[in-house]
Amino acid sequence: MLALAAPSVRAQVQTDRLEAMMIASGTGPRGEPLTIPLVEERLNVTIDHQMARTTLLQVYRHNNAGQIEGRYQLRPGSGSRVEGFAYWNGEQKIVGEVFERQTARRVYDNVTARRRDPGLLEEDGEGAFAFRVFPINPNEKKRVELTWSKWLDQRGKTIRYRAPLTRGDAEVVVSITGPIKNLRSPTHRIHVEKTSDGVRLRSEGAARGGELVLEWQADELDWTADAFVQAPGKNHDGWFALSLAAPDLPPNAVAAKDVTIVIDRSGSMMGEPLDNAKASAMDVIRRLNPNDRVNVIAFSDEVDPLFKTPQPADAGTRQRAVAFVDRLHEGGGTDIALALGTAISAQDKQSSRPRVVVFMTDGQSDAEKALQATKLDTRDVRLFTLGLGKEVNKPLLSRLAAQKRGRFVYIETASAIRSEVGKLAASISNPLLVDVSIDVEGAQAVRVYPRTLPDLFAQDELLVTGRLRGTGPAKFIFHGKLSGKPVTFTRTVDISKAPARPWVGRLWAQSRVDHLLEEISLGSSAPELMNEVLELALAYNFVTPYTAFLAIPESELAASSERATVEAARERKKKIMADNGDAAALDALESKAGGEVVQVQGTAPTIDPGSYSRNIPTGRTFGSTLGAQNDSYGAEDEDSSSKRSPGQVTSKTRGCAGCASDARGGSMTGLLVLGVLAVLLRRRRR
Question: Structure pTM?
Fold first, then answer.
């Protein structure tokens, strides 16, 4: 049998430690966990640019006397979604189905009461899943298989893939599609073969067991926008995913800034959370540049600012700021709204430099008042939130940062302070692309996530997903300001000719579900939000706090009183799939492709490296060798910039009149080809 305790609606925040392992229930003579030997391990990975789909098969063998229960833990990393689950009874493969969690739990409990072996896989915190296996008989091999997907972040030009592995001789096959170079693995010896659209690699072993790590660079110029689409169907909208990665910059490109550090010293921060907050604040202060300015504000149910406004970060000011932080002790309630209002209003209104607020708290406060405080403020202040402690209110801190175009960082333990604060310091030191917005021309973009687009910082990446209406060439345009000057980064895709990419639709569904779960965690009790989470998860087939994978042999189900319950759940899911023909269409595409990305003929877009300069050229367009796609950037038209609100996504459906010049050129080429064919046919008839 397979099971685990149900998590709360608000997922627990976990560290990004990867694992996939099974241990026996109970303990050994010294209280140690009883391990179940892993005798076989296979990993199959398909990566399309930055979307990775991973299938892990593991075979365990029980060598001891007597039946045991195995407890399986899978932690593929934050942002992962489990999309498939199966286990074997002997040679019979039992494939899991996604059902409503309560229904799956009820069936599981009733069947396992008869000591049978259904399977139930559920979320066990953010980026973590678990189940139990019973019985495992002596000398029995128990096989389990899981499939999950994850978008791989790009930092500068570097993309990194990680997967949990145990055996050094695990069979590993990875296919990567896209413009890549400098592929390496710091953990495994790999054999790489080039393919027509990327590479395929196999592992030749590792020095020791542990996770697999692959690293490579995107073989494209800085500020290259990527656009992926899944075309609309006859009766439903399509989907799109856009990404834009910011490059790293040399130290001399660091901008002078005002940094206000706000530290929660309320009673809920007692102990390790406050200790970590103080250590983090001191680290930020020490990392500031001499031309920066700094202020520190402590708060509980009242506020205590060190300075009235940020002061030059010379040696004396830094020493005072560090001493102020070191003296803080916990006590009182928590009023985040008051602290936010104080920090924002204490900014130098005459300053043109970037103004950053770094807010350190566990988030245990009135969420509605805190959110209202950021909504009412219209000043150009970026908010970075640091969540501290195991009880951090992640949804609140994520939303606060998003509303003020910053980032949320989680610090669970003292050991994570140095690395996480280092990343934060790099971000606030390099605000690159600000006031970001997106236009879509030639098609209509709807239901776009995230709702508010953040600024882009050094080695940062922006990922946007949405639904798409239109079938012709569509131009996706990122707008922003780089070094104070308006710029645009574009990508044009002919929707009707684009490769089939079902994962784009699933990525949108996951973004929509994440948004709904955040709304629920922030206090929304609207039942339609929970219903939509459930319906999307059932239609798009992945695990959420409201859904679970139930795997049960049909032979066991036939003899069970729960047969009617399962059949009713299947009928409900069948109706949901009928009502969500778009999700069903994705399933059909994946079945047709055998789980692989369907490719169309053509040459991947390229940009002439010799034409590139770090100074953004005015009006320069870098052409593509693929007629369906075009890359360009340059100074933005001032009139259009003045009419666009930062963070927005707008659509301009213009038909052929709105197509990019390259697309029009492609159409002329098509007409010439048709003309030549007509002449040849006429001659043949004669």
Answer: 0.80
